Amino acid sequence: MDLTSYAERLRRELAVAAQGGGEEAVALAGRLAAPLESSVRLILLEALSEAADEITRDLAPGSVEVRLRRGEPAFVLTRSPAEHAFDRPPEQDAEPPAAAGKDARDGGTARINFRLPEQLKGQIEEAARQEGLSVNTWLVRAVAATFESSARRGPRSPAGGRRHSGWVG
C-alpha cells in the first residue's frame, strides 16, 4: 500500500488552507509540509495497525498483520488452516481415528473447549502439521493413546502410585 498519495493529498490540503492567510502562510505551509510527512506516515501506520487488530478480533482464529516492506505497509492475511476441526461444524469432522476405539466411532461427537499455554498450543499445531493431521484429529489420537497406554499399565493404587506385587525374601 503506497502512502505517498495520502501524504501528497495532505500537502495539497495544507497549501489550500494556507492561501487564506496570505503569502507568509503559504511559505510557512510549504516549509512545514516536508517535516509533517513522516509524522503523517507514522499516524497512518498506527491507524492501519489498529484496523488490522480489529479485523483480527473478528477473523479469529485467522489474523491480519501490517508489515513494512521498503517503507510501505503491506497487509498479511493468515487464514486458519481449513483442515482444523474448529473451523468446521462438528458434522463435517472426519470419522474418529481407529486409535480412539470402536466406542468412539459408534457414538456421536462432543465438543470441548479448554485453555492451554500458548507455547503448548504451538507445539500441538506443529506436531499435527508434521503428521499431516488436523489439530482435532491429532488431539483425539493423543488422548486415546494415553488411555490405551494407561489400560496396558494396569490400575493404579488409590494413592495414585503404581502397584507392585511379588515376593520379598
Give an account of the 3D structure.
About 12% of the residues have low confidence. The chain is mainly alpha-helical. The chain starts with a helix and ends in a 16-residue tail after the last helix. A two-stranded antiparallel ribbon has the order 1-2. Strand 1 and strand 2 form a beta hairpin. It is built from five helices and two strands.
Shape: rod-shaped
Mean pLDDT value: 75
Order of helices and strands: HHEEHHH
Low-confidence stretches: 83-97, 99-103
Work out the helicity level: 40-55%
Give the biggest beta sheet. 2 strands, antiparallel
Radius of gyration: 30 Å
Beta fraction? 5-15%
Task: Chart the SSEs and their pairings.
Layout: H1 4-19, H2 23-59, E1 63-69, E2 72-78, H3 102-106, H4 118-130, H5 135-153
Antiparallel strand pairs: 1-2
Provide a brief overview of the structure.
By secondary structure, the chain is mainly α. Helix content is 53%, strand content 8%. A two-stranded antiparallel sheet has the order 1-2.
